[in-house]
């Protein structure tokens, strides 16, 4: 298993589109639409560099249906393989929408570092 990631403070302008970067390429089963994922992740606000959530803080990975996640995860995690670590930089329109819509992360560009530990297929 990979160790807790360090998310470097980003530089440059806010991205307008989803950025997907493989930090470690996995060699296991692939995440596809309809998958349920077992992941460890850390989430950081692009502008402040502050961590807003991390499964690492709870000491265990989380199991989530890919379909139930924000668009940036649904698009950005597809094709990832078990054993991989991927960084997603997600603009607001693919995260929690524009500022003022009620979610505490609305209007924010988010960075996630995701470790894919397991995949199960749901039909």
TrEMBL record:
GO molecular function: peptidyl-prolyl cis-trans isomerase activity
Keywords: Isomerase, Rotamase
EC number: 5.2.1.8
The protein, known as: Peptidyl-prolyl cis-trans isomerase
Reactions catalysed: [protein]-peptidylproline (omega=180) = [protein]-peptidylproline (omega=0)
SUPFAM superfamilies attached to this UniProt entry: FKBP-like (SSF54534)
Enzyme class of the recorded protein, top EC level: isomerase
Cross-referenced PROSITE patterns: FKBP_PPIASE (PS50059)
Ranges annotated as spanning the membrane: none
Organism: Haloactinopolyspora alba
Domain PPIase FKBP-type: start-end pairs: 34-120
Family, similarity comment: Belongs to the FKBP-type PPIase family.
């Amino acid at each position: 298993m990979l160790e807790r990631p360090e998310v470097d403070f980003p530089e440059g302008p806010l991205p307008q589109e989803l950025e997907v970067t493989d930090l470690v390429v996995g060699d296991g089963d692939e995440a596809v639409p309809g998958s349920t994922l077992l992941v460890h992740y850390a989430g950081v606000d692009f502008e402040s560099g502050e961590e807003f959530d991390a499964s690492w803080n709870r000491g265990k990975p989380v199991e989530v249906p890919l379909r139930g996640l924000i668009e940036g995860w649904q698009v950005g995690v597809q094709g990832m393989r078990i054993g991989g670590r991927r960084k997603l930089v997600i603009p607001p329109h693919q995260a929690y929408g524009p500022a003022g819509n009620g979610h505490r992360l609305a209007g924010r560009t988010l960075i996630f570092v995701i470790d894919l530990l397991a995949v199960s297929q749901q039909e």
